[in-house]
Amino acid sequence: MCYNMPDKARPGFRGGIRVHHRKECRKSIPVNASFMFKLTKGLRPIILLSVFLIMTVVPCSCGGSSTQSFNTAAPTQAADPTGSESTPKPNRFPNRPNADQKTGSAKELAKGDVAPEFSVKLIDGTTFRMSDHDDGVVLLNFWATWCGPCVKEMPDLQKLSNDGIAHFTVCCLSVDDSASDVKTFCQKNSYKESLFGTVSGTAIGSYYPSDYIPYTLLIKDGIVQEIFVGSRSYADYRKAVDAVMGK
Amino acid sequence: MTSKTNKRSRFPKRHYVQLMAAVLYNCNFRGFADGKIYKGDTKGLCVPGLNCYSCPGAAASCPLGSLQSALVGSRYRIPYYILGTILLFGLFLGRFICGFLCPFGLIQDLLHKIPTPKIGKSRVTRLLSLFKYAVLFVFVLIIPLWKLAPGFCKYICPAGTFEAGIPLVFKNPVLRELTGRLFTWKVFLLCVILLLCIFCFRAFCRFVCPLGAVYSFFQPVAIFGIRVYPDRCTNCGACVHACPMDIKKVRDRECIHCGQCISSCPEGAIHYGFKDSVKGSLEEAAASVLGPSEHASAPAGTAAASGKRTFGSRKTILLVVRLVLFVLGVTLLVAGILGGGFRDVLNKAIRICHECIGIG
Q1: Which of A32, A55, A63 lies at the smallest CB-CB distance from B5?
Q2: What is the location of CATH 3.40.30.10 in chain A?
Q3: For residues A4-15, b (16+ Cβ closer than 10 Å) or e, as one string?
Q4: How far apart are CA A5 and CA A21, in angstroms?
Q5: What are phi and psi of B23, to 5 degrees?
Q6: Which helix (DSSP H) or strand (DSSP E) does residue B331 occupy?
Q7: Distance from A184 to chain B by nearest Cα, in Å?
Q8: B276 or B181, higher pLDDT
Q9: Which of A72, A195, B200, B272 is paired with A107 by a 20 to 30 Å CA distance?
Q10: In chain B, residues 7-26 whose CB comes closer than 8 Å to chain A
């Protein structure tokens, strides 16, 4: 009963600093806890986790319902038949996966695979359709405004586009949630808006799946020829393009 | 001597809570086998502790990683959502999160159990504990805003290297090709920190962790955590002596609410609780809110003798501060969700910039 003892008689007393004799005192100290303390005794880990879950589930239910995950979103704004500058060509590949109609398998792409069909409205208002470039070469780049390596390689992609290579197109699709962010990015850096679009609100991301950005594909005649994960220099891209075009 | 003594009021199984939190944060077990990250909607949420969202098992996002990514993109939108989340976590729990809800804290605790000679706390370690504020300022605020890179995640975070970098590089040949100096540096830093944690209790939390630095600002107003009965406190110093962290008093900026002091207190004056039912703890907290000039360095027990009027006004101030912070946090959170903050965090967590997590 150390609480009724004078200081010097207490177990563990050492010159001014009283060191608690744990087991004895734990047994001897009477209970005098608040109502809340008694109520939560033994349930505290569960209560703690419940608080955490409530704090996390509430924003999920509020924001999650309107959220369209990069991989699972419905193609709400992808197709724009009225504003399209080109009419769809007859499909060269009968079983080609289509991100707009969400048909075909959405699997991780490898060299030699058919590039899934999609159409996307670019920042300048025009529409980019993958099948329109089945007789040319496309450099399809997935990036984000907040991704350092992606932003770093943008001047190189611009330069590549400005080289004026025949039957060659650069298309940079941002994974940013907002198209206005991409537009601001283009305006701030004086990039050509005709090269940029966003996959937000489309199913393109699930048909071109990758855990990482920048993610770049070199597609010739509708077939994936090269896949780059991570940023590359202008020389690397130019070399790959020349090799694919047979120069 | 008061007869009002406190029975053992300690969280009985802290490591179990830590383990539960770690499992809850990283419940995508399939990801570890596949080497693929989880891409569900829960990635738009933040967990309270330091847990890399690029970890293959992570089912939610890291608040610090999300904050840095949000700051990188802050020229396009202000990160209300993530700021509100961190504010509410801090307001409700403070550094209790470091003690109970951080998976990397658990790793450090377990490493410190390895029986070796230990480095004790001293004035030097107390001084070094200020280093984390420099890390917070430079790597979490300046570099993301100025250099447009998540500085802490990219150059320092050992949790990211341990939970995400190494498993992803191990499972993905594509990423293996991308590794270079940056990855070597991060693995080296991880080894140094883990080694240090064997000899020094929570070396990373004490000296480096910027998330702990953020939560430490909320310590005076945190709603849940360690409390002291001032009428029982005799200012013997046993709690400070027993504490493995660099505290000067219970529940100061370095306190992680681990509960070591509870069993060391000969008077049973320390306990966990929500309620500032005792004058002294309110007194201390209110003094911290009011500023260092009014901070009472006297023992908590003497605070009980202070005037009832002063106590009442300080109690009111603390309540007002808490209320203001709560309203601010909820407002930021709601504004963030309505402004697309949730989707923003989600987008950044399901497509990884490899360099941003130190693979480069």
Answers
A1: A32
A2: 119-245
A3: eeeeeebeebee
A4: 13
A5: -70, -40
A6: helix B308-338
A7: 8
A8: B181
A9: A195
A10: 7-9, 11, 13, 16-17, 20-21, 24
Question: What tokens appear for A43 in the block?
Answer: 């349930």
pLDDT in tens, B28-39: 998 888 888 998
Among B3, B4, B6, B7, which would you mutate to test the A interface (most chain A Cβ atoms within 10 Å of its Cβ)?
Answer: B7
- A93, with CB counted inside 10 A (0-12, 13-18, 19+), is middle
Q: What is the distance of C-alpha A133 from the center of its chain?
A: 26
Extract the tokens encoding B128. 């070094």
Among the partner residues B6, B21, B46, nearest to A33 by beta-carbon distance = B6
Rounded Cα–Cα distance for residues A157 and A74 (Å): 29
User: Which amino acid, one-letter code, is at B57?
Assistant: G
Q: Best interface-test mutation with B: which of A2, A142, A211, A231 has the largest number of B CBs within 10 A?
A: A211
Q: What angle do CA A209, B73, B53 make, to 5 degrees?
A: 50
Assign a CATH topology to domain A119-245: Glutaredoxin (3.40.30)
Hey, which residues 214-243 in chain B have their CB within 8 Å of chain A?
Answer: 234, 236-238, 241
Which of A10, A177, A229 has the CB atom closest to B174's CB atom?
Answer: A229
C-beta atoms of B175 and A229 within 8 A: yes
The CATH topology of domain B223-328 is Alpha-Beta Plaits (3.30.70)
Give the pLDDT score at B295: 41
B250: amino acid identity, one letter: V
pLDDT digits (tens, 9 = 90+) for A79-131: 344 444 445 555 677 778 888 777 877 778 888 888 888 888 888 888 898 88
Cβ proximity of A177 and B343 under 8 Å: yes
Q: Is B202 left (phi over 0), alpha (psi -120 to 50) or beta?
A: left
Structure tokens of B229?
A: 């009965």
Mean pLDDT, range B104-121, rounded to an integer = 92
ipTM of this model? 0.74
Which B residues in the span 173-212 are in contact with A, Cβ-Cβ below 8 Å? Answer: 174-175, 178
Helix (H) or strand (E) holding B306: none
Residue A25 contacts B where some CB pair is shorter than 8 Å: yes
Question: At residue B49, what are phi and psi to the nearest 5 degrees?
Answer: -95, 175
Taking a contact as any Cβ pair under 8 Å apart, which residues of chain A between 90 and 129 contact chain B? none
Q: List chain B domain ranges.
A: 14-217+340-357, 223-328
pLDDT in tens, A159-184: 988 888 888 899 999 988 778 888 88
Per the CB < 8 A criterion, the answer to whether A175 and B351 are in contact is yes
Which amino acid, B301? G
